[in-house]
Structures are given as structure tokens and as C-alpha cells.
Amino acid sequence: MIAERGYDSNPFRAALVKRGIAGCISSKKNRKQPIPHDKALYKQRPRVENMFGRFKDRRRTAIRYDRCPTIFFGAITLAAIVTFWLKQ
Q1: Are 77 and 65 in contact (CB under 8 A)?
Q2: Can you tell me the distance from the alpha carbon of 74 to that of 66, in angstroms, rounded to the nearest whole number?
Q3: In whole angstroms, what is the distance from residue 30 CA to residue 17 CA?
Q4: Which of 2, 53, 55, 56 is the one with CA 20 to 30 A from 63?
Q5: Helices and strands, number each (H, E), in the chain
Q6: Which tens digits make up the pLDDT trace of 74-86?
Q7: What does the alpha-carbon distance between residue 19 and residue 6 come to, in Å, rounded to a whole number?
Q8: Between β-strands 2-3 and 24-25, what pairing exists: parallel, antiparallel or unpaired?
């Protein structure tokens, strides 16, 4: 999970470990012992946030007209493919 500094807390990190999720969260500046993280992976965080922002621009996915989870997931997948394909 890639998250920003706002999610840097010991209980949140413990919950991630408990679920078996590897976290890439940069440490807050006031943390006494900084926890190391993968800086190259952390730089990908804005790309993911921008992708979700583009999804919200599309009214169908933002309002979720499709009540069937399979069709909704298909719309999300198609939007992700189009977003990344057009970006490159």
C-alpha cells in the first residue's frame, strides 16, 4: 500500500502488517526514528491519485450507475486502460 505521511502511525502500520499488506509510507518529520521506505515506489503515489481523479471526472464511475459489481468493475477496468493508454 502506498500512502502519504498522514497515514504514518504505529496502529495503522500494525493493522497493515496484521492483514499481510506491505506498506510504503514515508515517515513524518517529527518521528524520532524514521521508518525506511522504498523511495522509487513512493514516487508512484501521485500517478495513482491522479488516476482516481480522472475516474471521478467520468460521471458513470463517480455516481456508480451500475449496481452489479461485475459490470462496475468492468467499467473501472476499461477506464483505467483508456486512461493509461491515452497517457502514453
Answers
A1: no
A2: 10
A3: 22
A4: 2
A5: 5, 2
A6: 877 887 787 777 6
A7: 20
A8: parallel
